[in-house]
Design a protein that fits this description.
about 425 residues; mainly alpha; globular; transmembrane helix; MFS; Major facilitator superfamily (MFS) profile domain-containing protein; MFS_MCT_13; signal
């Protein structure tokens, strides 16, 4: 998980280095270029239920290995792009599909394996995102200057293929119990097949208020959370800082991101506060620091922008571990694989629209001040939504919900026939007894 997440979100968060290069090469608006990263992020979240369903039906290992191949293939094909549509399809759809098949299965596998120190385990696994952000931003800038953006994307494609090796190390049965796996030789009626697919995706969660409330809050987070990672480098260059100076700001934020993930996971496992309360704390602070990012650079102070970026990096890293640590408390461990995929599907609309909205505000205002203000407002609004969760103001966590017991139509039919046979045999036995008498 440590390596694979660095090659998914660590790489995704460092693509801001390519933003300025694409604007200059294709001579397009900031909004049009922003769709590249937004489509990739949205595709990763949109296809997460597919990855979860395939893992429930078959095994995690081949799913993650396939995702690693697709993520590398998309970046390799993007290096040959001649227009923005090519980048939308390659970096956006193909790589996004690969990321979706990697991220959710990896996270769900680790969450199912750890019970007592789950938040710390997630924090350690996610810390690679901050570490890779620190290393990738100056590395990508060097690759762009040395090989141009085409050569840099080709190298990143080869680097992403290492996810296949991570997938090969997953034990096939290292997951929580779910529905029975599909048998390729069996033939099921259409209704039974739909019911089985629904159970793989955990669609029943959409009827539960806590899950819907939590999903809405996370979706609002997504509208603003990723904006700094895609536009902070461009904003820094816009206010007059050098290319490497702008890239180093994101690298520095990546360092504090590492500590934020580990510290928040460790502190959460101490049990002094509920995880949902810690999530709200880190989310509110992250939203405030997002809104302060453009304000700190209005006077051209590089040190002020650096300090706010460091604080934002710590809080954004801290809240990520908490977002996933709360998931088992909302839906239970048994439904975690499908529920996590469904959550990623719904929140994909926030990832899809957040960055283009930020680019549109930049095109219409001439700077990124309004972009970061609106992004921070969405994060704060998501925090406010979380406070409506049931038992939010309680000092103890409620018991996690259990998976509802469902019986397939075929199973019900077999049960009914067995009952009828039992009844008929009893009647025959009684008739024989009466005849003897």
């Amino acid at each position: 998980m440590f390596v694979s997440t660095s090659l998914v979100f660590g790489l995704m968060r460092s693509l801001g280095v390519f933003f300025v290069e694409f604007v200059q090469y294709f001579e397009e608006s900031a909004q049009a270029i922003s769709w590249i990263s937004s489509i990739g992020l949205a595709a990763q979240q949109f296809f997460s239920p597919l990855g979860a369903a395939l893992c429930n039906a078959y095994n995690t290992r081949p799913v993650v290995m396939t995702g690693g191949f697709l993520s590398g293939l998309g970046l390799i094909l993007a290096s040959q792009a001649t227009c923005l549509v090519h980048l939308y399809l390659t970096m956006g759809v193909i790589s996004g599909l690969g990321w979706g098949l990697v991220f959710t299965p990896m996270v769900a596998t680790v969450m199912a394996k750890f019970t007592h120190r789950r938040a710390l385990a997630l924090g350690l696994g996610f810390s690679s995102i901050g570490l890779s952000s620190f290393a990738f931003n100056p590395l990508f800038q060097l690759l762009v200057e040395t090989y141009a953006w085409r050569g840099a994307l080709l190298i990143l494609g080869g680097l992403s293929l290492n996810i296949m090796a991570c997938g090969a190390l997953i034990r096939p049965e290292c997951r929580s119990k779910g529905p029975a796996k599909l048998d390729s030789q069996s033939r099921l009626p259409c209704s039974d097949m739909l019911q089985r697919v629904s159970s793989y995706l955990e669609v029943s969660l959409l009827c539960e208020r806590p899950y819907l409330t939590y999903t809405l809050g996370v979706t609002l987070f997504n509208f603003g959370y990723f904006v700094p990672y895609f536009h902070l480098v461009a904003h820094s260059r816009h206010v007059g800082f050098s290319e490497y100076g702008a890239a180093f700001i994101m690298s520095a934020a990546g360092v504090t991101d590492i500590f934020g993930r580990i510290v928040s996971g460790w502190f959460s496992d101490l049990g002094h506060f509920r995880v949902i309360h810690l999530l709200i704390l880190w989310t509110v602070l992250a939203g405030v620091f997002i809104m302060l990012l453009p304000v700190s650079s209005l006077m051209g102070s590089y040190s002020a922008l650096m300090v706010i970026s460091l604080l934002y990096g710590f809080c954004s890293g801290a809240l990520t571990s908490m977002v996933f640590a709360v998931v088992p408390m909302i839906m239970g461990v048994e439904r975690m694989m499908g529920g996590l995929g469904l959550l990623q599907l719904i929140e994909s609309c926030g990832g899809l629209l957040g960055t283009p909205l930020s680019g549109w505000l930049r095109d219409n205002t001439g700077n990124y001040v309004a972009s970061f203000m609106v992004a921070g407002s969405f994060v704060l609004l998501g925090s406010l939504t979380m406070t409506t969760l049931p038992h939010f103001f309680s000092c103890t966590d409620p018991p996690p919900p259990k998976r509802p017991v469902l019986i397939d139509n075929s199973d019900a039919l077999r049960l009914e026939l067995a009952q009828k046979n039992c009844c008929s045999s009893e009647m025959n036995h009684q008739a024989v007894e009466q005849t003897k008498r």
